Queue: 3 jobs
Job 1
Amino acid sequence: MSETYEQMWSELGLDLEAHDALLQVLGKGYQDIYMSQSGRAAGMEYFNFVMSEVHGLRVKELLDGKKEGRKVIGSFCVFVPEEIVRAADAVLVGLCTGADFAMEEVEKLLPRNTCSLIKSAFGFKLGKVCPYMESADLIVGENTCDGKKKAYETLDKLVPNLYVMDLPQTKSPEGRALLKAEYERFKKAVEKLTGVEIDGARLKRGIEIVNNKRKAVHRLAQLRKADPVPISGLDALLVNQVYFYDDPIRFTDSVNKICDELEERAATVNGAFPENTPRILLSGCPMAVPNWKLPWIVETSGAAIVGEESCVGERGTRNLTDASAATVDGLMDAIVDRHFLVDCAIFTPNPDRLNHVKEMKDAYGADGVIHYGLQFCQPYQMESIPVEADLENHGIPTLRIDTDYGMEDVEQLKTRVEAFIETLR
Ligand code: SF4
Ligand code: SF4
C-alpha cells in the first residue's frame, strides 16, 4: 500500500485495515479473472492500470480537483444525467456497489432479502472502504425500485449529503413531465452546489463530452459483431464499468485506441476466442466493479459474451443526447428525451426492453441469451419470466440465472452454464 495514498485514505476517514483487505481481494480477483485471459488487446493495459489505481490515483485526481473547487457527485443509477454535472465542471462518479462488504452491519439496517447491489452500497459506507463515497460533495439517490427508494431513507441517516431524485414509473406524458421537473430541480441543486450557472454553451459542452464517451463505447460494441469476436466479454464489461469512474475525455481516447487496435485485428481475423465459439448475450441487472462472476463463468465454459443488455452496457449508453437545440430549455428537453428512453425494469409496462434484447441478439449474432437477475431484485426477476418465455417462443435459447455476489454457487452455476452452452453448439 502506497504511503501517499494511506494518508489520503486516512484523511477520507476510511478504515485502513478493512480497506487494505478489500484491495487485496480486489487485486487477487482481478489477477485471477482478468490477467489469466490470453490474447487481450494491448490497449487493455490502460484498463489494467485504471484498476490497479481505482482507489489510488483516480481518487487523488478527484481530491486535487476539489482543491481547485471542482465538486464531486456520486450516483447509483444511469438516470442521473451526467450532462448536467459536466456542464457545471463537476465530476460524476459511480459509487461502489459490486461486492459484499460488512454484511453483518448491513443486515442490522436492511432486511436480509435486499438485493446485493443495495446491500453493497451500504456495506461500503458502513465498512468505511469507499473513497468515492467519502469524496462526494453530493450523493444522488433515485426513486427507481422499491428497494432503493426505501433504502435511501436509511442511507440519509448515514451520510450528510444525500439528494433524492424522484423518477417516473410509466412512459406516459405525465411520467415525462415528472422527469423534466426532476431534472430541472437537479440542475438547480448542481448550480447551488458548484456556484456555476449552467447556460446553453455549458450544457452543450456537457452533452458533447458525454456523447463522445457513449460514441466510443458504441464503436467498441460494433466491433463485437465480428466472428471471431475481437475482445472478450470480460474486457468489454470492464470498459463499461470504468465508464462510470474515469475522466471522460481520457476514457474516450483510451476506448478509441482499443477500437483502432481491434479494427486491425478484425482485418487479420485475430479474435479473443476461436471462430464459431458460441456467442452469448447477457441481459438483466447491472454489474458494477468487481462483479465479474457470471461473465467469468461463461467465458471459462467455452462461450464468448458479445453484448450486455444492461445499464453497465448498452441499456445505459445506447442513446445519444441531441445537442442541436439553441436554448437551455431545449437542451434540457433533449436530456429528458434521451433518458426517458432507458428501458429499466422499474417501468410498467416495459415492452421496449424485450424488443431491445431481441434486436441485440440479432445485431450481435448471439446464439443464446443468459438473463441475469440479482436475487431479491423484484423488477428484473419479475421481468425475467416473460422475457424468457418470449425469447423461447421466438426460438432463442435462453437461460435464466438468479444469483448474488457470493461465490458459494459458482460450481452450480458453472454446471448450468456449461449445459446451456452445450445446447448451443
Ligand atoms: S437498472 Fe434501473 S435502477 Fe438500476 S441503474 Fe439501471 S436504470 Fe437505474
Ligand atoms: S438490482 Fe434490482 S432491486 Fe437491486 S437496486 Fe437494481 S433494480 Fe433495485
Note: Strands lie at 72-75, 91-94, 138-142, 162-165, 279-284, 304-309, 368-374, 398-403.
Job 2
Amino acid sequence: MSADPVDWTQNAQVGAMAYLLHTLLQEAERQNRGFIGKVIEGAVDDHKGIPAGTPNKPFVDAVFAETLQILRRSQASIEHPALPELPPAPRPRELGAQAPVSDDWLQWIAENRLRECTPDSMLSTMTAAGIDAAQAKAAIARIETDPAFRAARRMQKVERKLESVVANLQKLWASSPRYGVIEKRKSPSRDEFVERYVRGCRPVVLTDVTKDWGAMKRWSPEDLKRRFGHLDVEIQDGRDADPNYEENKLAHRKIVQLGPFVDRVLAGGPTNDYYLTANNEALRSPGFAPLLEDIGRLPPACDRSQLGHRSSFWFGPAGTTTPLHHDTLMLFHTQVVGRKRWRLVSPLETPKVYNYNGVFSPVDVDNPDLARYPLFGEVTVLDVIVEPGETMFLPLAWWHQVLSMDISLSFSYSNLDLPNDFVYQNPDIRNW
Ligand SMILES: O=C(O)CCC(=O)C(=O)O
C-alpha cells in the first residue's frame, strides 16, 4: 500500500529530526566524553520532578521514555577508545635494576606509611623491585619530615576519630544477642517499621508483602517473554571476562530484545556472565507498565504514587553475583521467582571493607583474601536467604553481596515516603 503523501512527508521530517539529533549527540559525546550520560541524568531528574497529578501525565511519561531511549541508543552506539589505566602502585619486581625513587614510589611510600607499614618491610619491597637500598632507605626516612606528609598525618587523626566513633557504635550494635540474625517477620505497623528498622538501621525480611500481588501468580520467564518479548531492555553482558564488572558496569551495557534474552537465560544454565539489573530503566517505559499493575499492597512507609519512578525489575540466571557494595538510599527488594542469598555487613564496619573506590568494596565475602584485606577478618557478616514472596528491607548504607540461587525475577523499589536522599563523599582510588 502506498503511503499518503502528507504522512510520508511528516514521517520523513520526524526521521530527519531523529537522524540529526542522533548525529549531534554523537558529535557532542565525542568532543565531551560523558555528555550524553549527563543529559540522561538531567532528563531522569527532570522527569522525577514532575508531580504525579500533572495533567496529561501519561503523555509526559511517554515523552520522557522516548527521550531516554533516543539518548541511550546514541550513547550505546558510540565506541570510545579505551581510557589508559591509572598507573598501578608499584609492586615488587615491577621496575628494572637500580631504578630511581620515582614520584610513584614516593607516593607509594607515603600511602603505605599512612597505613602503618613498617619502614623495614617497605625497604625490602623496594629493594626487591630493584631500587638501590641506600636511596630507598633515605626516601623512606625523608617522608616523615616532608611537610605534605605531616599535613596528611594531621588529617588522618581527624579520620581516625570518626573511625573510633563508628567502631564504638558497632560494638554496641553487635553486643545485642540477636545481632547476627536477620529477622523474618510479617509487616509491622508503620510506626514500628520506621522506628525499629528505618531509624534503627536494621535489615529485615518481610514475609507477607506479596500476599495480594498478581506478580506472584503471573511472573515467570515465559510470561516475560510472552507479554514483553518484543521490547528492548538494557542488560549487563560479558561480565565473566572482567573481574571488576560491577565497577565497570557502564562498559557492559547492551540493549537486547527481552524475548531472546529470556531464551538465553533459560538455556544457559548457571552463570554470572549476563544479568538484567536495576540499571535498566524498563519500568519507565510505557511498554512495561503492565508489570506495575501486578504489584499489590506495598510495605509500610511506601509512597504508591512514586512506584513507577522508583522501581526496577531484575532478571537473570542462577549464579549472578552482585559484589559487595552499598546503595545510596534505602530500598526494598522483593523476590518474585527464585531465591537470593544476601550477605550483609554493617555500615559501621565501613573502615574494614577497603572502600577505596565509589560505593564498592574489593572484598569477595564468599572468599575474602585476608592476606590483602586483613581487617575484613574482624567483620561480622550477616546471612539470609530471601525466598519467593519475601521482601528484603535494606536500611541505609548496609553493605551487601547478593547471589541468585535460582533463575530469578525480583522487583526493587525505593519509594519510601520518608526522606530518602543522601549524599556520599566517595573515594576514587582504583589502583590499590
Ligand atoms: O539482586 C542483586 O543481584 C543485587 C541487589 C542489590 O544490590 C540491590 O537491590 O541494591
Note: The longest helix spans residues 147-174.
Job 3
Amino acid sequence: MAQQVLAQLYEHATPQSLALVVLLLFLAAVRLATPRSRAEKLLSKLPSPPFRLPVIGHLHLVGPLPHRSLRDLAGQHGPDVMLLRLGAVPTVVISSPRAAKAVLRTHDHVFASRPPSAVSDVLFYGSTDVGFAPYGEYWRQARKVVTTHLLTVRKVRSSRVAREQEVRLALARVRAAAAARAAVDLSELFSCFANDVVCQAVTGRLPREQGRNKLFHDLLETNNTKLLGGFNLEEYFPSLARLSVVSSEAAKHRKRWDDLLDGLIDKHVRKTANGEHEEDFIDVLLSVQEEYSLTRDNIKAILIDMFEAGTDTTYISLDFAMAELMRNPKAMAKLQAEVRRCTGKGKEMVTEEDLSTMRYLKAVMKESMRLHPPASLMIPHFSMAECDDVEGHTIPSGIRVLLNVWALGRDPTCWESAEEFMPERFMEEAMDADSDLQGNDFRLLPFGSGRRMCPAIKFTTATFEIILANLIYHFNWELPPGTTGIGMTETYGINVYRKEKLLLVPCIAQDV
Ligand code: HEM
C-alpha cells in the first residue's frame, strides 16, 4: 500500500513537491530520533487544539482580540488548562476559577515569575521594573519600595488633596462644555485625569508643564499598543528578537523615556540640593536609593512602570464603566440617586468622606471590571519548577502561563446572566463580602491574586470613585444629537480598550 502511494506520488510529482516531501520526511525522522525532553513529554499530555501548523504552531488560531479567541479555544479544547504552541513558545492558558486558584494561590510560589522578554528587557532597563522583573530578591525589593512609599493606605489618603484638585480641573472642563451644550470626549478626559493623578503622586507638580501630558500619552501609547501588546511575534520567536525591528524600535522609544526621566530626576536632585523638599515618589526613590541599592536605570524602570501600569488601566475602567452606565439607564439613575443622596445638596464637590457609604458605586466598579478587566490576560506568569497539581495536569518548569481573567468574569457556569451589566449582583450581602477585588474570589480577578497581584487597588479605587461620583453628581449625561448608541467594540494592546471615543453631552443637574 505504501509502495503504491509512493509510486503514484513519484509519477505525478514536480521536483519542488518531491523536495518538500523529502524535507518533511527528514524533519519527521529527526523529530522521532531526538529523545524528547521531560518537559516535552509533559506538555504533550496537556489538552491542546489539534490544528497546529509547522513553525507558527497555534498562532493562526489567535485573532486580533486574543482574550476572546483564547476563551473560545478553551471552551473546545481545555476549559481549565490548555496548551498552545505559540511560535516557539509553549504557553499554558488558564480559563477556570479552580485552575486560577491552583496557579495563583495553592502554587503561587511556583508561578510567581515572569517569562523572559526581549522587549521588556529593552524598555525596562533589563526588566528591572516591578511588573516584568523575574521573581527574586531584586523584584522583592523593587515591589517593597513601591508598596511602602507610594501605594500604602496612608499614602493614598495623604494624596487626597491632589486628587480632589485634579477632579476640580476636570469638572471645570465639563462645566465649560455644558455651558456651550458641546460634547465632551470623556475617553480623553479620563486618560488625562488618570495620568495627572499618577504624575502628581510620582513627580509632584510637573505634569501640566507645557506638552508633558501629550508626551506621556504618546510614550504610553507606544509602550502599550505597539511594543508590549501581548501578541507581537517577537515574544513567540525569541531567537529572532535580537535581529528584529521591534527590539530596535523599543530601543529608540526607550531613548525618549530616557530624555524625559533624566530631566525629571535631575530636576529633583537640584531641588533637593536647594533645600526644596516636596516628598513626591521621585524624592523618595532618590532618598532610599542607597538603602535599596538602586541604580539610576533601576529608578527609571520603576518610574516607567508606575506611569505605564497606572494610567491606561484606570482610564480604561472609567471609560467602560461610564459607557455601561449610559447603555443601562436604570443603573445610571440608581447610581445618580445614591451619589446625590449620600453627598447632600449644594456641595461644591463629592468628597472622599461622602464616598464611604456609596455601596452601589462600589458595585458598579466591580461589575464593570468583571465584564471589562483592563488587563484581560494579566501580565504573563512563568513556572519556576514543575507543578503536578493544576486541576489534574502537570505543568513543566519554564513555561509561560496566561490567565484569562476576562473569561473568568464571563463564565456562564459561575455568573447568572454573565454577559449582562447588573451591579445589583454585588449588592447582596454574601456576594458583596466575597467579591472584594482583593484576589479572594477567583471568578473576579481584575487585579490578579497572590504574590504578583496589583499593589495599587486602594490607589485605583480612590481615583476611580472620586471622578465618577463627581461627574454623576453634577451632571446629567446625554448622547450627542444624531447618535443612537455607544459602541463597545474592543481593541487590544497590553490592555483591552474601547475602540470608539466616548463622546457625551453634559447638562448641569439643577436639583443638586
Ligand atoms: C484599574 C486599574 C488597574 C488594574 C485593573 C490593574 C491590574 C493589574 C494586574 C492584572 C496586574 C498583574 C497581576 C498578575 O500578574 O498577577 C497588575 C500588576 C501591577 N500593577 Fe496594576 N492595575 C491597575 C492600576 C495600577 C496602578 C494605578 C498602579 C501604580 C500606580 C499599578 C501598578 C502595578 C504594578 C507595579 C504591578 C506589578 C506587580 C508585580 O509584578 O509584582 N497598577 N495590575
Note: The radius of gyration is 25 Å.
